[in-house]
C-alpha cells in the first residue's frame, strides 16, 4: 500500500508453516469485454483469456455464505504487523487484522467480503489476505495481467473517514524478510481512501525516503471510476506488465481505460531490476487509518461507520508468452554457463525468499529453501564443449538431522536431474562453502532449474551463486 515507510531491519527468521501452492491452468473463460464488466451482475464470471493468453490463477469466490477463503490459494495476515515487521503494517493504520469470518467471508453469491468492524471500546478489526503463490511475473518477452472486479466499501463523506481498501502486489523477496521495502517492488493496482470516487495506481521501488521512485509517494496517478462511482458499482481494476516492449512497461487500468503507465527508463537499471526481477504475490485488504487517509483528512473518527465491506467478485492472473501461443518462448541464450550465475537472478521461483548475504562480494542469496522449492534460470548457454561439473555456493544452519539435495534439471522441472549434491548444516545460514557435483554432459542452450528435495519439511539450505565447468 502507498505508505510503507519506517520498515525496520529484522533478524533472520524461519518462515511460517507452508500452505499448498495451487496453479489453476484453464482455457475457460470470459469473452465479455472489460469495458462492460461494471454493468455485469454482482457475481459475474471471470472473463476467459483472450487469444494468446493463459489463465494461471483464478478465484471466483464461490462458496457457502459465511465461509472463509480457500487456504490453498490464500493466507491470512493477522494482527498489526508481519512477524518481526514494522508496527501497524508499516503504514500507521489502526486496525487489527483477523482471520475471523466477521471480517473476511464469502457472501454465498460469488463475492468475497472484507469488512472493517469497530467494537464497543472503539477498537477496529478488518481483513487482509495474500496469495500463497509468490511467482506471478511475465515470462521473458511476454506479459502478465492481474485483475479483479471490485466494489469499494459503499460509504462516503464523514462516514468514510479512514477507509483504505486496496488490491495490490508485493515482490516475492519481501515474504519472510519484511525489511527490504521498497527495493523489492510494490504494484498498487487499486487503492482508495475516504470514500472518494477515485482509484489510485502506483509503483513503489528504490529507497525510502525519496530515491528514484519518490518514496513514500511512489510513481502513481489516479482517476475517477467510469459510469458509476467506485463505491456504488463493481469495476474491473487491472495491471498489465509488458516485457514485449522496450522499455518494459507496467500499465494500470479501470474498466479497460489505462490511466497510469510506468516504464523501465523512468528509473535507473539497478532500481528497476531489483523491483521486477522476481515473482510477486497478490494482496486484498481494507485498512483503517494510516498515512494515505491521513493525506486526505485522516480518520477513522467518531463519525466513521463500521461494517461497510469491500466486495471482490473475482481475482485472476493471465500470462502471454509474447509469441502468440501461450507457451514459454525458447531459451534466449542470455546466460553464460561458465560465468557466475547469481542465485537471486532467477526468472521465476516457488517457495524462496532473498536476503542480504555476508558472503564475499556481498549482494543477496536465496533462502528459506525446503523440500519442493525451485528456481528457474532461462537461456543458459553451455556452448559446444560439454559441461560435466556443477558448482554451487551454499550455506546452512539446519538443525541436526535435517539435510537435502540441490538438484540441476534442464528445460522442465519434470525431467530427471542431470546431477545433484547433498547438503546439511555448514555451521550457519551465512557460513558459506562451494560444493561441486558431477553432471551428465551438457551442450547447447537450456533453461536450468535448481530444485530442492528433502525428507524433512524444514528449511535446509541457502544458495548464493552457481556455475558450471568442463
Written description of the protein model:
By secondary structure, the protein is an all-beta fold. The chain has helices at 269-276, 291-294, and strands spanning 53-59, 74-76, 96-97, 104-106, 112-114, 117-118, 124-126, 128-131, 143-151, 163-171, 186-191, 199-204, 219-223, 235-242, 249-254, 257-263, 280-288, 310-320, 335-336, 341-342, 348-350, 353-356, 364-369, 374-381, 387-396, 404-410, 419-423, 428-442, 445-453, 461-469. Helix content is 3%, strand content 39%. The relative contact order is 0.16. Mean pLDDT is 88; it is low at 4-39 and 323-333. It is globular and about 70 Å long. Strands 1, 4, 5, 9, 14, 15, 16 and 18 form an 8-stranded antiparallel β-sheet that branches.
Concise structural overview:
The chain is mostly beta strands and 470 residues long.
Specify the number of helices. Answer: 2
| Basic shape | globular
Instruction: Output mean pLDDT.
Output: 88
Rg, rounded, reads 22 Å
Distance between the termini: 48 Å
Helix content: under 10%
What is the β-strand count?
30
Q: Enumerate the spans where pLDDT stays under 50 for 5 or more consecutive residues.
A: 4-39, 323-333
SSE order and pairing:
Elements: E1 53-59, E2 74-76, E3 96-97, E4 104-106, E5 112-114, E6 117-118, E7 124-126, E8 128-131, E9 143-151, E10 163-171, E11 186-191, E12 199-204, E13 219-223, E14 235-242, E15 249-254, E16 257-263, H1 269-276, E17 280-288, H2 291-294, E18 310-320, E19 335-336, E20 341-342, E21 348-350, E22 353-356, E23 364-369, E24 374-381, E25 387-396, E26 404-410, E27 419-423, E28 428-442, E29 445-453, E30 461-469
Amino acid at each position: 500500500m502507498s505508505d510503507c515507510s519506517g520498515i525496520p531491519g529484522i533478524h533472520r527468521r524461519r518462515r511460517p508453516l507452508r500452505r499448498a501452492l495451487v496453479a489453476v491452468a484453464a482455457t475457460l473463460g470470459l469473452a465479455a469485454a472489460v469495458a462492460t464488466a461494471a454493468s455485469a451482475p454482482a457475481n459475474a464470471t471471470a472473463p476467459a483469456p483472450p487469444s494468446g493468453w493463459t489463465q494461471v490463477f483464478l478465484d471466483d469466490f464461490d462458496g457457502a455464505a459465511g465461509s472463509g477463503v480457500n487456504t490453498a490459494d490464500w493466507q491470512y495476515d493477522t494482527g498489526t504487523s508481519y512477524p518481526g515487521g514494522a508496527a501497524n503494517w508499516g503504514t500507521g493504520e489502526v486496525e487489527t487484522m483477523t482471520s475471523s469470518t466477521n471480517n473476511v467471508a464469502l457472501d454465498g453469491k460469488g463475492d468475497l467480503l472484507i469488512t472493517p468492524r469497530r467494537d464497543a471500546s472503539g477498537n477496529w478489526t478488518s481483513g487482509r489476505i495474500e496469495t500463497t503463490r509468490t511467482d506471478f511475473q511475465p515470462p521473458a518477452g511476454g506479459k502478465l495481467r492481474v485483475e479483479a472486479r471490485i466494489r469499494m466499501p459503499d460509504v462516503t463523506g464523514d462516514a468514510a473517514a479512514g477507509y483504505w481498501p486496496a488490491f495490490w502486489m508485493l515482490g516475492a523477496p519481501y515474504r519472510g524478510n519484511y525489511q527490504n521495502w521498497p527495493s523489492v517492488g510494490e504494484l498498487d493496482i487499486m487503492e482508495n481512501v475516504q470514500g472518494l470516487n477515485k482509484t489510485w495506481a502506483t509503483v513503489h521501488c528504490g529507497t525510502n525516503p525519496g530515491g528514484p521512485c519518490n518514496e513514500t509517494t511512489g510513481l502513481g496517478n489516479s482517476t475517477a471510476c467510469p459510469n458509476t462511482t467506485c463505491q456504488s458499482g463493481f469495476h474491473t481494476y487491472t495491471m498489465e506488465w509488458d516485457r514485449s516492449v522496450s522499455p518494459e512497461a507496467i500499465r494500470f487500468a479501470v474498466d479497460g481505460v489505462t490511466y497510469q503507465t510506468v516504464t523501465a527508463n523512468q528509473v535507473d537499471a539497478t532500481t528497476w531490476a531489483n523491483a521486477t526481477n522476481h515473482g510477486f504475490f497478490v494482496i486484498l485488504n481494507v485498512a483503517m487509518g494510516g498515512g494515505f487517509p491521513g493525506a486526505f483528512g485522516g480518520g477513522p473518527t467518531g463519525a466513521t461507520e463500521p461494517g461497510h465491506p469491500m466486495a471482490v467478485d473475482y481475482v485472476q492472473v493471465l500470462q502471454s508468452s509474447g509469441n502468440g501461443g501461450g507457451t514459454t518462448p525458447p531459451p534466449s541464450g542470455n546466460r553464460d554457463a561458465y560465468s557466475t550465475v547469481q542465485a537471486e537472478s532467477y526468472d521465476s521461483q516457488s517457495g524462496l525468499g532473498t536476503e542480504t548475504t555476508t558472503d564475499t562480494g556481498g549482494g543477496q542469496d536465496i533462502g528459506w529453501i525446503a523440500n519442493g522449492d525451485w528456481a528457474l534460470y532461462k537461456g543458459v548457454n553451455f556452448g559446444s564443449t560439454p559441461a560435466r561439473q556443477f558448482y554451487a555456493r551454499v550455506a546452512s544452519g539446519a538443525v541436526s538431522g535435517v539435510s537435502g539435495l540441490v538438484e540441476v534439471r534442464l528445460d522442465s522441472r519434470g525431467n530427471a536431474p542431470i546431477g545433484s549434491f547433498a547438503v546439511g548444516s555448514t555451521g550457519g545460514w551465512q557460513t558459506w562453502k562451494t560444493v561441486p557435483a558431477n553432471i551428465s554432459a551438457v551442450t547447447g542452450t537450456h533453461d536450468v532449474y535448481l530444485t530442492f528435495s528433502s525428507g524433512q519439511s524444514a528449511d535446509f539450505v541457502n544458495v548464493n551463486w552457481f556455475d558450471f565447468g568442463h
